[in-house]
């Protein structure tokens, strides 16, 4: 048949075919297939696969493609990137998809950055770090050596670790290098806190002292407690220092003069922790910006208004058991909005505006676990064997790291969390430096540090 005649015949057949019902079309196809030879059947097989497929990412508007992609998990998205260049281009261009993927991993998101390729790279970095945590490979260890007696007091700030020892000295260490920056002669230290110029120490000799780093000179001595001072805190702007003691009292001092402004009573056990913090929420008893003092003993947390040193009365007393049968751990967390403390019953979180218990977290075998740090996304916990990271959104332990077998006591201050900003969400920059520090029986300090990103 000539080409011209064939094209005319094909047009006529096509018109007739389109006028048939679906059943008739199927019967026609069946008949034509039965008349076909091997060449025709092979041709049909090769083209059917192409005819039946539809590339929806290529055919749909970009907005609809993004909407569909949001329902896929990140690992599937990465696999889809390998389908074709077009798919990789579309998937890589969806900012919200990768931002959401990062959020789901506990990553901090800066919404002002709208570069999708940036967020895809962040996700790849995040998934690597989270895999390291899951595989217990995110950390490494180191030691600081220099004291000749028990190290009881520890305080960390901005890459520097201060240690106070029974060898009558305090040392300031650069954690990144392991070098001792300052070493000064002090009294026996039960608590330390420092800034660039000074060191404040609470001692087993019942006093508090202030020292100058550069000269090692004692610039102020605070006398008045009749028991060891286990915790200190201060604020230069308020010119106030607070101390908690084994004499069951909290004292408020003028930082510059050493004068005792007030002695706060009401505790019936050793006061093992004092925290001076600015309030972030409003309630009937305080407003945002007010300074608040928290003091904790074995069974209770007391809340005091700072700035009312005369006739200062306790605003509220918090506890986890009315009969005082459940004790609290001394590593109290207070950020101005929430109070968090651990006990044998679990991890308690109070709302500071209402003083109500928001939740109690009870992971397996919590009676042996203590709090080190608490954030918006993660919590750092430990027991006699391991350091743990908990995802607070699911209340599941997502990582652990082995600790040295020796543990003298969970109640002392010889344990410390390092950098804590990552507890509010990792961002690829805050997962570095010190994670945890503890003193050892050989008078060294055992450090747990973030490994560098692979």
UniProtKB/TrEMBL annotation:
Alphabetical keyword list: Acetylation, Repeat, Ubl conjugation pathway, WD repeat
Top-level taxonomic group: Eukaryota
UniProt repeat feature WD, residue ranges: 144-183, 222-263
Domain F-box: 54-101
InterPro entries: F-box-like_dom_sf (IPR036047), F-box_dom (IPR001810), FBXW2 (IPR042627), WD40/YVTN_repeat-like_dom_sf (IPR015943), WD40_PAC1 (IPR020472), WD40_repeat_CS (IPR019775), WD40_repeat_dom_sf (IPR036322), WD40_rpt (IPR001680)
Assembly with partners or alone: Directly interacts with SKP1 and CUL1.
Role: Substrate-recognition component of the SCF (SKP1-CUL1-F-box protein)-type E3 ubiquitin ligase complex.
Protein name: F-box/WD repeat-containing protein 2
């Amino acid at each position: 048949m000539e080409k011209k005649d064939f094209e005319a015949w094909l047009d006529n057949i096509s018109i007739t075919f389109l006028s048939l019902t679906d059943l008739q079309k199927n019967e026609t196809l069946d008949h034509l297939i039965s008349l076909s030879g091997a060449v025709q059947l092979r041709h049909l097989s090769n083209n059917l696969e192409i005819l039946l497929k539809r590339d929806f990412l290529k055919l749909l508007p970009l907005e609809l493609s993004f909407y569909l992609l949001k329902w896929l998990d990140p690992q599937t998205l990465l696999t889809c990137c390998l389908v074709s260049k077009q798919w990789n281009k579309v998937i890589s261009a969806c900012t919200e998809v990768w931002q959401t993927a990062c959020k789901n991993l506990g990553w901090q998101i800066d919404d002002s950055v709208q570069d999708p390729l940036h967020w895809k790279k962040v996700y790849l970095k995040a998934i690597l770090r989270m895999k390291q945590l899951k595989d217990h490979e995110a950390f490494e260890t180191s030691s600081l050596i220099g004291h000749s007696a028990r190290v009881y007091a520890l305080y960390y700030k901005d890459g520097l670790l201060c240690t106070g020892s029974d060898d009558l000295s305090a040392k300031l260490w650069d954690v990144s290098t392991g070098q001792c920056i300052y070493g000064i002669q002090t009294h026996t230290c039960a608590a330390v806190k420092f800034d660039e110029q000074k060191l404040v120490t609470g001692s087993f000799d019942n006093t508090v002292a202030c020292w100058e780093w550069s000269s090692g000179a004692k610039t102020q001595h605070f006398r008045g407690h009749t028991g060891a001072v286990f915790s200190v805190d201060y604020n230069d702007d308020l010119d106030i220092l607070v101390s908690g003691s084994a004499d069951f009292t909290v004292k408020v001092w003028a930082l510059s003069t050493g004068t005792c402004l007030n002695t706060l009573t009401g505790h019936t056990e050793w006061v093992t922790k004092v925290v001076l913090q600015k309030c972030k929420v409003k309630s009937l008893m305080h407003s945002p910006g007010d300074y608040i003092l928290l003091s904790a003993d074995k069974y209770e947390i007391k809340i005091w208004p700072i700035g009312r040193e005369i006739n200062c009365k306790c605003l509220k007393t918090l506890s986890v058991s009315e009969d005082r049968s459940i004790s609290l751990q001394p590593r109290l967390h207070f950020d101005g909005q929430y109070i968090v403390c651990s006990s044998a019953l679990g991890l308690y979180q109070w709302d500071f505006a209402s003083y109500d218990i928001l939740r109690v977290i009870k992971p397996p075998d919590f009676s042996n676990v203590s709090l080190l740090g608490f954030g918006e996304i993660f919590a750092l916990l430990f027991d006699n064997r391991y350091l743990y990271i908990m995802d607070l959104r699911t209340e599941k332990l997502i990582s652990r790291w082995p600790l040295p077998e020796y543990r003298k006591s969970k109640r002392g201050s010889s344990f410390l969390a390092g950098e804590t900003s990552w507890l509010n969400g990792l961002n690829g920059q805050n997962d570095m430096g010190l994670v945890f520090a503890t003193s050892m029986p050989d008078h060294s300090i055992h450090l747990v540090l973030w490994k560098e990103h692979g």
